[in-house]
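Hey,
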Amino acid sequence: MTTLIYILFGFLSGILGGLGMGGGTILIPLLTIFVDLDQKMSQGINLIAFLIMALFSLIIHYKNGFIKTRGIIYIILSGLFFSLLGAFAANVIPSRILRVCFGIFLIILSFEQIFKIFKKNKTKER
């Protein structure tokens, strides 16, 4: 049964990851809530899964012409720097605080998406 749950979670996070929305947005809560993994463990598993899913998604997006490389070096360099900073921070911050922060992030993200939908519908009505 556990293997089936992991396959389902991989399916869900793979779909979101392939769409470019980030599979970790769903994978981390699924692992912490339903498999009862520690926040840090869930984040680590997500990072490993993300690398592989991102590689395949990148190849497909590149073949479809959805990759623009102008200015990408700045994104990569700053992303690398802040990834290191975040990894060090995650190492010293207790899992409970990370879990709360991630939950708050998801709530803010949800409200932002809801407001976008209402704003888009409002402009269509005009």
